[in-house]
Predict the structure.
Amino acid sequence: AALDLFLLGSGADGHTASLYPGSSQVLNPGGCLVLSAEGKGGVTASIEYISSARQVMISAGKASQANMVAIALGRADAASNTECPVGMISVAEGTGVDWLL
């Protein structure tokens, strides 16, 4: 079942929800909803599961995140850009996404 809201932070490198650029969780999620969190010893949600939420809010208000935001919001290939996982969420069809800048 889809969640009503995902509230996410993001890093200047484009990671979110322990989904790091080029990681196996981003490259090969295997259709899973929940994945092992790389280097954290916990779990995280897949991009597909996050994208199924009714609303996603992404925090990216630091000056050091400006380039990442430009990549996430300004590239035509953002949905498949595994080097910026947060951008893969921002263009998911049917998902309401708000950026907190």
Q: What stands out?
A: The mean pLDDT is 87. Residues 66-74 form the longest helix (9 residues).
